[in-house]
Amino acid sequence: MDRPEREKGVNTPLFENEDQTLFAVLIGLRDEALLLPNAAMAEVVGMDQVRTGDESIPGKIGNIVWRGFTLPVIDFDRMVGQLDGLPMRRPRIVVLHALNSHLHGRAYAVLCEGQPHLIPVNSSSLRPIGPRPHDKPEYVLSRASVSVREVVIPNLEYIEALLAAPSAISA
Questions:
Q1: At a CB cut-off of 8 Å and minimum separation 6, what does 65 contact?
Q2: pTM for this one?
């Protein structure tokens, strides 16, 4: 998607009416946060479950075994080329349900800082903002302001397609 189309979407209404409230999950990263639908999050697990060493795609830091399935683990900051190598305080792994059925186990995991937070989102608390100059549109679908915090809305379809590629799957 090119920049002019993305910027047109900044003024697109997010809610059908002003009274509508949805619940979203805020997943902390090193310097920003991802905003995802509440239903996307499956579970939070410890870093000790990550088997490192598999970096078959940019941002992939390894795998975890979750409910009998080997799932890829990504570091979103690394994936988008930001803050590579900086340590994280209280790192955890958030298992996400996949949008499509192409991923083994229909899930994957994201490295996060601290515990994810459930937040109510409505038309008065969520305001679309424009992309940052360094945003890679294939990874960053949009940016928004929730109350006073800027959040990233990732392009989960693209990320899942990368992870579903045969080269991204290893035990």
A1: 49, 51, 71
A2: 0.83
Instruction: List b or e across 86-109, with b for residues whose CB sees 16 or more CB atoms inside 10 angstroms.
Output: eebeeebbbbbbbeeeebbbebbb
Residue 43 CA to residue 26 CA, distance in Å, equals 14
Cβ pair 147, 137 in contact under 8 A: no
Task: Quick: pLDDT tens for 115-170.
Answer: 999 999 988 888 999 888 888 999 999 999 998 889 999 999 999 999 988 654 44
Give buried/exposed letters for 60-74 (b at 16+ CB in 10 A, else e). bbbbbebeeeebbbb
CA distance 96 to 71: 10
The tokens of 116 are what? Answer: 């994810």
Residue 2 pLDDT grade (very low, low, confident, very high; cuts 50, 70, 90): very low
How far apart are the two ends of the chain, measured CA to CA in Å? 33
Average confidence (pLDDT) over 71-95: 86
Q: How many residues does the chain have?
A: 171
Report CA 165 to chain centroid distance, whole Å. Answer: 18
